[in-house]
Amino acid sequence: MKIVGVTSCSTGIAHTYMAAESIKKAAKKLGYAVKVETQGSIGIENRLSSKEILEADLVIFAADLPVREVERFSKVKVYECSTEAFIKNADKALKEAIASIQ
What we know:
Radius of gyration: 12 Å
Order of helices and strands: EHEEHEEH
Shape: globular
Distance between the termini: 12 Å
Largest sheet: 5 strands, mixed
Strand order of the largest sheet: 3-2-1-4-5
Number of helices: 3
Number of strands: 5
Oligomer: single chain
Helix content: 25-40%
């Protein structure tokens, strides 16, 4: 399974990056390929390409603010939650995200 995600929090600092790391760790634990774009206070980092978005089996928005350039995701189904969902219990949040696409 290929997973891509976008994280963003209200201050664009800690929770943005904590959620990104949590998504990556949970996905890798299950053996899934994963890439996470962060939309923090310094802008978009690790930008997802159109190809990566379209090829993903699961797209996660762990965001407390609206995702920037959201039109890039118009052709895919997105699982949305807060950054806190992945920070508090990444394994549970990832299982819920996977269940949403099955």
